[in-house]
């Protein structure tokens, strides 16, 4: 029994610490977060108390209002913390991959399936909507990366729909904060077993490429690449 209480206390302490860290992070980007949360909490409680005095039940409405005030404050805090987090991540390399990692159950993400020397990158997510290729970087450069990766996906899994998205604030692009919502709105066309089969095929391809024997060190002079092998651009 004592062990269970100790574990519960440790879990609560961990949650409080996480909330405190989240608040500190949010406050760096949102200076008014404290005033906003106080206004939401006090305002909500005040409304319920006023109603309670009007109908003659201030205690009951006060308790109920306190619970609603805490809930409203938590919701507002969560939204503003999320907005602050996206604001700090926006424009940073790998920001889209971080969003994909937290998209939710039913999706399998593979970061950086394609990249160029300028660090423009394409990530891949597989779910019931099919395959979604998400690019971040210079819009003009990532288009060629997307086209090449999409062509490869269509060749490997021709029966699975492939969507492509470019993260950014320009025309035809998806804002980072709307990436998760945009993906979740895609029509679901695959069943669970089909998603698993698609992941298995893509995973097998990755294992095949990673296990392919390649010569170490510089290539000997006069050595020719086999037909169909990779060529320099």
From TrEMBL:
InterPro entries: DUF4191. Residues 210-233 are annotated as: Disordered. The keyword Transmembrane applies. The chain crosses the membrane at residues 33-53, 59-78. Residues 219-233 have a biased composition (Low complexity). Keywords: Membrane, Transmembrane, Transmembrane helix. This is DUF4191 domain-containing protein.
